[in-house]
Design brief:
mainly alpha, Arc Repressor Mutant, subunit A, two-stranded antiparallel sheet, binds FE2/S2 (inorganic) cluster
Amino acid sequence: MYVCHCEAVTDQTVDAAVLSGARTVSDVMELCRAGGGCGGCHATLQALIDASATFRPASEASVA
Ligand code: FES
């Protein structure tokens, strides 16, 4: 499903960017162009990044 309509980027592409190391919306934008238009998808991009935290190695987990 498209998460960024401006750049026609799907959630699968964003997930791939996160798996490649993207940890911020800017990182995702740099890797796959998602978020580079109106900015309306930034909250969704951040949610996808946050959701991926579950699968990151413990060494990358933030300390609360
Ligand atoms: S919908 Fe992603 S930048 Fe506009």
